[in-house]
From TrEMBL:
<keyword id="KW-0347">Helicase</keyword>
<protein>
    <submittedName>
        <fullName>ATP-dependent DNA helicase</fullName>
        <ecNumber>3.6.1.-</ecNumber>
    </submittedName>
</protein>
<feature type="domain" description="Schlafen AlbA-2">
    <location>
        <begin position="63"/>
        <end position="181"/>
    </location>
</feature>
<dbReference type="InterPro" id="IPR038461">
    <property type="entry name" value="Schlafen_AlbA_2_dom_sf"/>
</dbReference>
<keyword id="KW-0547">Nucleotide-binding</keyword>
<dbReference type="GO" id="GO:0016787">
    <property type="term" value="F:hydrolase activity"/>
</dbReference>
<dbReference type="GO" id="GO:0004386">
    <property type="term" value="F:helicase activity"/>
</dbReference>
<keyword id="KW-0378">Hydrolase</keyword>
<keyword id="KW-0067">ATP-binding</keyword>
<dbReference type="InterPro" id="IPR007421">
    <property type="entry name" value="Schlafen_AlbA_2_dom"/>
</dbReference>
<dbReference type="Pfam" id="PF04326">
    <property type="entry name" value="SLFN_AlbA_2"/>
</dbReference>
Length: 186
């Protein structure tokens, strides 16, 4: 889509140019929100893990090179800025997963990793577009994660699908990491 305009006034041109930028930004944001859908086999993989947690396994016992669970810090705020804490974690994990050699990986938000059974599902009220945007903005080159909502044991969970990267991904200050076994390696 091209934004074209003709104006004799500099201020009118500036207003029209700004309007074009807003339209492009809205289209870009919509594209991020609908970057792709989780495949059926990927959804089955996530559901199998959630069933195991519901049946008594702890989330951390199920974490792997392609799966991680995270409780939303806003559910039980331990510090003054749960947003920053969550985003730092998600950016680090997205970089690790994208730099790995294992294909797509998943972060399930809204699950306490040390608890088991239905009480492990603490849920989240985070907005999908906010999470996608923060991860995108906090990585270089930008990582396009996909996000889906899932209801489990009465809790709203968010599944972030992190694609395998085609280059080395890092944080804006140049830190890069890669997940080897279950450990991030910097």
């Amino acid at each position: 889509m091209a934004c074209m305009f003709r104006s004799d006034s500099v201020s009118e041109a500036a207003i029209l140019a700004n309007s074009c930028l807003l339209v492009v930004a809205e289209l870009f944001e919509t594209t991020l929100l609908h970057y792709g859908a989780m495949r059926e086999d990927e959804l089955d993989f996530i559901i199998q893990a959630l069933r195991s947690i519901e049946a008594g396994a702890t989330a951390d016992s199920l974490e792997s090179e392609i799966l991680d669970f995270k409780e939303d810090p806003a559910v039980h705020p331990r510090n003054r800025n749960p947003d920053a804490s969550l985003i730092e974690f998600l950016i680090d994990e997205a970089v690790c997963f994208s730099n790995a050699d294992n294909g797509n990986a998943f972060i399930v938000l809204g699950v306490a990793d040390k608890k088991s059974g239905p009480e492990a599902f603490t849920g989240t009220q985070r907005e999908l577009d906010w999470l996608i945007r923060k991860i995108f903005e906090g990585t270089q080159p930008n990582i396009h994660v996909e996000a889906d909502e899932l209801e489990w044991c009465g809790a709203r969970l968010i599944v972030l699908r992190v694609p395998r990267g085609i280059t080395l991904y890092q944080r804006p200050k140049g830190q890069a990491s890669k997940r080897v076994d279950l450990t991030p390696v910097r």
